[in-house]
Write a structure and sequence with these properties.
This protein has 997 residues and is an alpha/beta fold. Helices cover 46% and strands 14% of the residues. The chain is built from 36 helices and 26 strands. The protein starts with a helix and ends in a 7-residue tail after the last helix.
Length: 997
């Protein structure tokens, strides 16, 4: 039941998929290099038998030498060569020149490649490291696994992620080649890119793309059987990994399981349905907003462009708004390794020119550029045919309303006239079934669905909560009825109604009321959850009014209005909100940066689609929105960011009915999950969770605690902490339930119904902090940027509720504090569970550090520790006796340190001294036994070599050297027994040579 158990299970699953297992020390290689060059060369010789040896060695050099000053650039260079191959040229004896494009992997014939899973691979770099498991394909180390012990409660996949960070520092040459990194403790299993932060590592939840596997205990098996079949892995390596260049900073990304299966099925559908083989309707990919749609579009574009059956197709990426166009275009430019060069049609004429050429490529355009032009002789009667090619594929972003304008001169009709033989595929985050709109009729069947429910379960998005705070509009009843009847997108056709609503929403008193409510709400929100907000208003004029009202309030954070402008027509007073393209980009960057003081933006339409700022957690809505537009807008707050638990939509104008209607359409189209959850449900959950946690704390009474003196409060808090440390089960339950409570409080803290419990929640959080410090020492494990803030300011600030941290100096606690003064504190009556937990932590930490130095003794002390704690928790040993036993164990360490010094031994000689001195009566040694110890340890160290514990000849050499040292000093009858004990201690102590210390 150890780390090796998980590792062996993974190897068994990989072997069942046809991988060959080899021990790391059996691989033929220079330990400073990571590629099995002989294997790679053999593959090249098998695959390209007509290419001379000198040219193949040149290809080998290209695949093993990479350009770039850092790992990320070298990894990008290798990835390009791995997926796109390299061109090699040579001349024959007659001087005739030849050329061949060579790949290091055979993507078409999986079985033609050599797949090896090698365990315990030692690599010498800045430090020497041993990886748990490496997958070599044709000698290239493309996948690294880092395992942790499933049965150790103190370590998990986050520790595995930190280990990868150490590898990056110590053996960077491995990551020149690494394509996929796997972290697992047997239960959890996550895949990601080596340089990504832990939050971007995700499980693989589907074997074939149809059924979702949500069971946590099956994660490793699902990952291996879902991603690691040879054909699947090769497809993923070739098409689903890419590097983005952000002004010299390389960010590597890989697809998640829903993207892999959705795109793979879309590519298959394209081959089947593209004209003239099919009807040109390639299908619809329905992936909810925030789940990586732009990445999916880029990957699919790359695959379609590489399919030989499509003969160098042109992919037209078509959107319905210029801001979406720009955003998506920028994303594609970042993915140029996948999609190649991207062209942007700035005008109708430019679009027509681009589409009239024969070459392939990627063209970006808005749908309105397929308009009829005004000519000297009048407007065009119909759109001209631009290309009759069959290898034209139109990829529609957000396949909705504008795609269905098949009336005369409608954009959708114009596209089909312009490109009569083109095929169409649609991407959407929200299905549409409005009047006259049938997504499947236009684009074909839904290929793959990834809905809100699954995205939230996977952590791909966070749930969105809805909070109504309506401030009534003063409008005529008939306008209210007409407003209900307006279809999404028809607002411009009913200007009278829209103007009336805009005026009512922008009334001075109402704007001031809403602004005041927004600021009060936002302050309460960020008191427990750090983040940013968007305010959505009916018009640009109302945006400016809201800005003026908000900034006039005291303690208002920095706010900006984001809107289009027309200097010739807009009022002069709006000038502060007019921005050039560059300044708009600068403010976008500021708003996306969590630490930047710009906390809030006010928008009308801009940034409501195609804009990601993950740190935004709240949207204040004071604009009527419907259907697709509403779903798109609220998705701005569903992005994953650090420990952000949710997004929140606060409604000031009354969109609840439109939300209900959008939800009905969503579920009616087959999607699971609601776009938003009512805040009432969250408040109810929070209050229930509070009662649950309070019950675990003994249902304390706040007023009684306030009436206590400082000394009484300290005594009460000590007793509570002591009670919560009664056993691991009790402690773990409290910490788990308190975490849920803190997340719910962060979610609902702006609601007045939560305010009465805030003081008690703050006290509970203080208690939790002390328990964490006692149970788990502070360090890298918890060194993260917490966005969820404790309500400490709401608790009893004037009193030291818990002074244990100061009493025991918990931040620095270690074995050195087992001195007389500490022992005196521990022996005092009261708080026995706290003291026992502290002692357990100290002793456990010390045993871990000393285990390899003295296996026999440390194993004995560990067993003794577990026996004492077991008896204590079974009530067969009282607390005073348990504490005495634990102090006795702790004193053993001090005695060992003292003995080592007194005996003149080094730290790693003491275990051998204990071993030999236990047999002193039969040892024939004239001088002190320390001399024999020095000799034995020196003879062991002299004969150590890499992986010696796995090599019988290496062990035999050590055994012989030690035997020579003991010969004549130990009776022949006892020699084998002592020799075996020495070798066992050496195996534990020097197993990881030369990585010790």
């Amino acid at each position: 039941m150890q780390e090796l158990t998980v590792q062996k299970a993974a190897i068994e699953w990989l072997q069942s998929l046809g991988y060959t297992n080899q021990e790391g020390n059996s691989l033929t290689r220079d330990l400073k290099k990571v590629v099995l060059e002989e294997s790679l060369l053999n593959f090249l010789k098998r695959t390209y038998p007509d290419v001379p040896s000198t040219a193949l060695h040149e290809a080998l050099s290209a695949f093993t030498q990479h350009e770039g000053m850092d790992v990320d650039h070298r990894n990008q260079d290798f990835h390009r060569k791995m997926t796109q191959g390299v061109s090699i040229s040579w001349k024959d004896a007659q001087g005739k020149e030849y050329a061949k494009h060579i790949y290091p992997l055979n993507y078409e014939e999986p079985e033609a490649n050599e797949f090896i899973c090698a365990d315990e691979v030692t690599i010498i770099g800045k430090n020497t490291r041993r990886t748990d498991l490496l997958i070599y394909i044709n000698g290239l180390p493309l996948v690294v696994f880092e395992f942790k012990n499933m049965f150790d409660a103190e370590v998990g996949v986050d520790n595995a992620h930190r280990q990868i960070g150490h590898y990056l520092q110590d053996i960077p040459q491995l990551f020149d080649y690494n394509a996929i990194t796997i972290l697992s403790d047997g239960r959890e299993a996550l895949h990601g890119m080596y340089g990504a932060s832990f939050k971007w590592f995700t499980p693989w939840k589907s074997l074939y793309g149809e059924e979702i596997v949500n069971k946590a205990e099956l994660q490793l098996e699902t990952l291996l059987k879902g991603l690691f079949p040879k054909a699947t892995l090769l497809n993923y390596l070739k098409n689903f990994i890419f590097h983005e260049d952000h002004n010299g900073k390389i960010i590597k990304k890989g697809a998640k399981y829903h993207q892999y299966w959705g795109i793979t099925k879309a590519a298959q559908s394209a081959l089947k349905n593209v004209k003239p083989l099919g009807d040109g309707r390639l299908g619809v990919i329905w992936h909810t907003q925030g789940s990586g749609k732009s990445i999916s579009m880029a990957i699919l574009t790359g695959i379609l462009r590489s399919l030989p059956q499509l003969k160098n197709p042109t992919i037209v990426i078509q959107v319905d708004r210029s801001d979406l166009d720009q955003q998506l275009y920028e994303n594609f430019v970042l993915c140029k390794d996948l999609v190649g060069e991207v062209q942007h049609a700035e005008t109708t004429d430019e679009l027509r020119t681009l589409l009239s050429t024969d070459g392939g490529g990627v063209i970006f355009t808005t749908i309105e550029k397929f308009r009829l032009k005004e000519l000297e002789e009048g407007k065009e009667v119909s759109h001209p045919v631009l290309s009759e090619r069959y290898n034209l594929i139109v990829m529609a972003d957000e396949a909705h309303r504008t795609q269905y304008g098949f009336k005369d001169g409608g954009f959708a009709q114009n596209i089909r006239i312009a490109l009569p033989n083109a095929s169409f595929i649609g991407f959407t985050g929200t299905p549409v079934d409005s009047k006259g709109a049938d997504t499947e009729l236009v684009f074909g069947d839904t290929i793959h669905t990834y809905d809100i429910k699954q995205a939230v379960e996977d952590g791909a998005t966070v749930p969105i909560y809805y909070e109504p705070k309506m401030v009534p509009l003063n409008i005529k009843a008939e306008y209210a009825k007409e407003l209900e009847a307006i279809e999404e997108g028809e607002e411009d056709d009913v200007k009278g109604v829209w103007a009336a609503v805009e005026d009512a929403a922008g009334a001075e008193d109402r704007v001031n009321t809403v602004a005041n409510d927004i600021l009060t709400h936002f302050k309460a929100r960020i008191a427990s959850l750090d983040g940013k907000a968007m305010v959505v208003c009916m018009s640009r004029r109302n945006c400016v009014k809201m800005y003026d009202a908000l900034t006039a309030l005291p303690d208002c954070p920095e706010v900006a209005v984001i809107m289009t402008s027309n200097i010739g027509k807009d009022p002069e007073a709006w000038n502060p909100h007019v921005r050039t393209k560059d300044s708009m980009e600068a403010i976008k960057k500021r708003f996306r940066t969590p630490e930047d003081p710009l906390k809030m933006v006010i928008v009308r339409d801009m940034w409501l689609t195609g804009f990601d700022a993950p740190c935004v957690h709240t949207m204040y809505v004071d604009k009527i929105m419907k259907g697709h537009n509403l779903m798109q807008a609220i998705a701005r707050v569903n992005r994953v960011f650090e420990d952000k638990p949710n997004g929140l939509v606060v409604d000031f104008i009354g969109i609840s009915g439109f939300l209900a209607e959008a939800t009905k359409k969503y579920t009616g189209s087959g999607g699971a999950g609601k776009p938003t959850v009512d805040i009432d449900a969250a408040v109810e959950l929070c209050l229930e969770q509070f009662e649950k946690v309070k019950d675990l704390c003994g249902d304390f009474d706040l007023e009684e605690i306030k009436a206590m003196s400082d000394a009484e409060q300290l005594s009460w808090s000590n007793s509570l902490v002591d009670k919560l440390l009664k056993s691991d089960t009790v402690t773990d339950e409290f910490l788990r339930e308190e975490k849920k409570l803190s997340e719910l409080v962060a979610m609902t803290n702006s609601d007045k119904r939560i305010w009465p419990i805030q003081e008690e929640v703050g006290m509970i959080q203080k208690i939790r902090d002390v328990i964490r410090k006692i149970k788990y020492p502070p360090g890298a494990r918890r060194a993260k940027n917490d966005r969820i803030k404790d309500l400490i300011s709401k608790s009893l600030e004037s009193h030291k509720i818990v002074d244990l941290a100061a009493m025991y100096d918990l931040d620095k606690i270690d074995i050195s504090i087992i001195d007389d003064s500490f022992q005196a504190i521990v022996k005092e009556k009261g708080g026995e569970n706290i003291k026992i937990e502290l002692l357990r932590r100290i002793i456990n930490d010390e045993i871990k550090v000393r285990m390899v130095k003295n296996i026999k003794k440390m194993t004995s002390l560990k067993e003794e520790l577990e026996k004492v704690l077991g008896n204590y928790h079974k009530n067969s040993l009282d607390s005073i006796a348990a504490i005495k036993h634990l102090i006795d164990i702790a004193n053993e360490f001090k005695n060992d340190d003292k003995r080592t010094k007194e005996l003149g031994l080094s730290e790693d000689e003491l275990a051998f001294y204990d071993l030999l001195s236990a047999n002193q009566s039969i040892i024939n040694e004239a001088g002190p036994i320390q001399d024999l110890v020095h000799g034995v340890v020196a003879s062991v160290k002299k004969n150590l070599q890499l992986d010696w514990t796995k090599k019988e000849d290496a062990k035999a050499a050590i055994r012989l050297a030690v035997k020579k040292e003991l010969k004549g000093k130990v009776p022949f009858s006892a020699l084998d027994k002592i020799l075996q004990e020495v070798i066992e201690q050496a195996e534990g102590q020097y197993k990881d040579w030369p990585m010790m210390g």
